[in-house]
Amino acid sequence: MTKLIQCVPNFSEGRNQSVLDGIKKIASGEAGVTLVDFSADESHNRAVATMVGSPEGIERAVIALVQYAAEHIDLTKHTGEHPRMGAVDVIPFVPLKDITMDECVTLSKKVGESIANTLKIPVFLYESSAQRTNRQNLATIRKGQFEGMAEKLQKPEWAPDFGDSAPHPTAGVVAVGARMPLIAFNVNLSTSDIEIANSIAKIVRGSGGGLKYCKAIGVMLEDRDIAQVSMNMVNYSGTPLYRAVELIKAECKRYGVHVVGTELIGLSPAKALIDCAEYYLQLENLDYSKQILENHIL
Amino acid sequence: MTKLIQCVPNFSEGRNQSVLDGIKKIASGEAGVTLVDFSADESHNRAVATMVGSPEGIERAVIALVQYAAEHIDLTKHTGEHPRMGAVDVIPFVPLKDITMDECVTLSKKVGESIANTLKIPVFLYESSAQRTNRQNLATIRKGQFEGMAEKLQKPEWAPDFGDSAPHPTAGVVAVGARMPLIAFNVNLSTSDIEIANSIAKIVRGSGGGLKYCKAIGVMLEDRDIAQVSMNMVNYSGTPLYRAVELIKAECKRYGVHVVGTELIGLSPAKALIDCAEYYLQLENLDYSKQILENHIL
Fold first, then answer.
1. What is the Cα–Cα distance from A297 to B5, expressed in whole angstroms?
2. At CA B205, angle to CA B199 and CA B211, rounded to 5?
């Protein structure tokens, strides 16, 4: 029973290679932590590190990363397409194995408090760690961006969860919280009519009365001349991937179109796909932690 | 890229707890090796250890295990329901991650040669490691069992691949080889007629003109009063689990019955189930080694 957490800090730096190298070095250098993915985008001027490791290792790595970012990233000089409010913009903790969401919430609060106390960067707790309902959604917290934070933090309803009511002069503020892994999952349709994809997206997503943990939009794949329902599955236990596919198939019938394929973008936990195999194979009584060989080694 | 091998040595001992404890201790004590399962059966008088680890760690553990078994298990005094020919009866090496079948064959030959040279136990190479076609099938090699091996090894066609043409006086002979993981997978039918399960089993299995890497028999589940197609999937890459299910569903139509559920018995590699999700979800271009999160940690 090895507890494993995924942590995906977002940094407001996508251009300075020496700073990116510094981030990668820290993210991969901590004992018990593996850097499984690192991507930087110049136009967004933003980098995302995906680490997996023990709660203790992740905690040490995150605090070292925030300190490094605060020393090397200056938001007063930052430009880029992606909205941002801090040198480290957001730090999600994701339960992966033998650890509960509650334990990830506890860890996020411990790390958040430490960041505020030792690095003097105000912290908002978001998603499952949020202590106020207006802080569950990251976009709501980030509204106003770095430039608007000094004024925003003065408002009583935007007092940080940890730290002073003034942003760090160059590193801004940071959102810290626990959430389920996000899976980017697309369903391709046998039509070049984007309106059909838009209509199905509206039906399948939670905000449209569809599946609670599914966000969806219609997208046109120009090179293949087909329309796609592009989804973010934000809780694959609550809304499994197969359920979105089957619901889309059902709605397709209304338009006389069908599913020609699906796509997984980026990473997925094995369990999100094995849950689908369990459904389609009609597997009875699968004991995921005991019957999947790899779970005995991880 | 961590190479991982599964190794599942079978021991001809299922009753003497002190010997079983000794086996478990060695199987779990080697650096880089995890004992993921251990089961002993009194009536079979046999134990099976499932280890996963690096090729080097597995090599060291196996040689230590064979030495221990040769010192503590005496086949001249062994009785039990399961056929057997050696103190360690069979040692399969199974490729799990970032390692080819060819590399497992090479390792099996290296280990086999070492067992013959240092422990004076004759070795037959079987399954994918077999150097003669009559040695692919373990049951063919084991025919005559321990008591018949002295005579069998004298025949030119049964000269061991490594070691002398005489069994070890108390430890007999051992089969060593590389094979794909074996998955025990059952499909339950909406009928209490065992003849329907038998007929479908005959059609789905390779020996009946069905799926090459599938062995199948009909079985009655008395407590549920339903019939079952009970299968050993001996190469899930060559014959995926979903293909057996879909073929069984097609044959069910002939009898007006349907699949009420399926069962996985024991362990399965994650990929065997993710391959099924890939099929049913119609996933395009899934990159298993890169897109499954856990593969970056293992």
1. 11
2. 130
Q: Where are the beta strands (DSSP E) in chain A?
A: 4-7, 10-11, 33-41, 46-53, 88-97, 123-127, 174-178, 183-189, 214-221, 226-233, 259-265
Q: Name the DSSP class of A182.
A: P
Chain A to chain B Cβ contacts (< 8 Å): 134
For range B85-93, the mean pLDDT: 98
* Rounded CA separation A86/A176 (Å): 12
Nearest chain B residue (CA) to A36: B296
Backbone angles phi, psi at B294, to 5 degrees: -60, -25
Identify the active-site residue in A78, A82, A258, A296: A82
B247: contact with A, CB 8 A cutoff: no
B8-38 b/e (C-beta count within 10 Å ≥ 16 → b): bbbbbbbbeeebbebbeebbeebeebbbbee
Q: Identify the CA nearest to B262 among candidates A166, B252, B253.
A: B252
Extended strands (E) in chain B: 4-7, 10-11, 33-41, 46-53, 88-97, 123-127, 174-178, 183-189, 214-221, 226-233, 259-265
Q: Extract the tokens encoding B287.
A: 């990159």
The helix (run of H) or strand (run of E) holding residue B117 is helix B101-119
- Residue position matching structure tokens 């999160």: B293
For range B69-87, the mean pLDDT:
96
**End-to-end CA gap in chain A:** 8
Bridge partners, A231 (sequence order): A185, A216
Total residue length of chain B: 298
Average pLDDT on B149-169 reads 97
Output the pLDDT for position A291. 94
**Whether the Cβ atoms of residue B228 and residue B218 lie closer than 8 Å to each other:** yes
**What per-residue confidence (pLDDT) applies to B297?**
81
CB contact under 8 A, B297 and A36: yes
- If you average pLDDT over residues B138-162, what whole number do you get? 96
Residue among A260, A121, A122, A132 nearest A188 (CA):
A260
Report residue B148 as tokens. Answer: 């018949």
The pLDDT tens digits of the residues spanning A181-240 come to 999 999 999 999 999 999 999 999 999 999 999 999 999 999 999 999 999 999 999 999
Q: How confident is the model at residue B81 (pLDDT cuts 50, 70, 90)?
A: confident
Q: Which of B181, B262, B267 sits opposite A282 (nearest CB)?
A: B262
**Given an 8 Å threshold on Cβ–Cβ distance, is A282 in contact with B259?**
yes
- A44 in active site: no
Tell me, yes or no, if B258 comes closer than 8 A to chain A by beta carbon.
Answer: no
pTM given for the model: 0.86
Percentage of residues of chain A with pLDDT beyond 90: 93
B207 touches chain A (CB under 8 A): no
C-alpha angle A67-A137-A140 in degrees, rounded to nearest 5:
85
d(CA B283, CA B80): 48
B221 in reach of chain A (CB within 8 A): no
Secondary structure tally for chain B: helices H, strands E = 9, 11
ipTM score over 0.90, yes or no: no
> For residue A81, is pLDDT > 90?
no
